[in-house]
Amino acid sequence: MSSERMHVGISACLLGHKVRYDGGHQLDQYIARTLGRYMDFVHVCPEVECGLPIPREALRLVGDPAMPRLVTRESRVDHTERMRAWAERKVEELSREELSGFIFKSRSPSSGMERVKVYPEGGGQPVLKGAGIFPRLFMERFPLLPVEDDGRLHDPALRENFIERLFVMHAWQSFQASSPSLGGLVSFHTKLKLQLMAHSRKHYDELGRLVAHGKELALPELLARYARTLMEGLKIRATPRKHANVLQHILGHFKKELAPDEKQEALELIEHYRQGNVPLIVPVTLLNHFVRKYGKAYLAEQYYLRPHPLDLRLRNEI
What we know:
InterPro entries: 2-thiour_desulf (IPR007553), DUF1722 (IPR013560), UCP037004 (IPR017087). The protein is α/β, with parallel strands linked by helices.
């Protein structure tokens, strides 16, 4: 992975900025302190940046969940066009930040990316089908960038998947910035093979064919298709069964080196993981030991075995 720090957009309140309607914040210690060791955050507060004061009357989404209006809760002042005009300018401004992803504030009418309450025009119970104007425009403008909200990051599997995709996106952006070539793409893809296999065999096969026939396409089109398929595939959840298949595939590279008891220990750990008795880090650690011990250069370069910094402990909980 690239040694340079990635840039990740984030709702400002999650970093402790006192920008909420009541003058408070929603500091997330894990995001700010733990993830902050590996990424630089570009903070955004739609409500303050579009010109609303602190403190201010709370907002809510009202009307059609597919295109709701943003209005104040009590006085019913409509800020939809004001927010939309600002958001359109902001996403263009952010295009110059080279973001690798974005972390939104969950449930926020201006910063929530999904499942935000939308109230019916005539009153009644809200439905959890809305998204804030800024997140909606951001995701339309940057469809390949990984996005998540702070609430969903409490789920270990969703957290690991999101951060894995952040590091892959950052690596892809670094590759694109380094005079990319077909040969470079082949090398990049080779390092991602096992990671793709753990998420989607369909996308793994599709990307393999795309790279193999890369000479038939103009390089910009090839890179665009590769990036789109890559991020689409990695978004598919890697299950214990898929991980176990990849781990067994890795183990197959040591047919000539491992003693029978070493192979049996590895197989047992993989099965214990598949059954949910040990976390993924356990069999991965053993296989990384074999990679170093027996000098397997191909496996040593596989992102799958080290997709993110070890001290994030992401694979200790899945």
